[in-house]
Amino acid sequence: MLVEFSVGNFLSFKEKKTLSLEASSIKENPDNVILRDKLEVLRSAVIYGANSSGKSNLIKAMSTMSSIVRGSGKYNSSDEIPVTPFLLSTETETQPSFFEVLFIIENDLFRYGFEVDKKSVQLEWLFQTLSGEKEQNLFIRQLESIEISNEFEEARGVEDKTRDNALFLSIVDQFNGPIAKKIIEWFSKQVNFSGLQHEQVKFVSSLLLEHKDLNTWIKDFLLPLDLGFKDFEFDEKEKRVITYHTKFDESGSIVDERFKFDLLTQESAGTNKLYDMAGRLSLGLLLGGVTIIDELDAKLHPLLTMAIVKLFNSPKHNKNNAQLIFATHDTNLLSHGCFRRDQIYFTEKTKLESTDLYSLVEYRETDGTKVRNDRSYEKDYIAGRYRAIPFMGDFSKLTKSWQE
Question: Residue 398: pLDDT above 70?
Answer without folding.
Answer: no
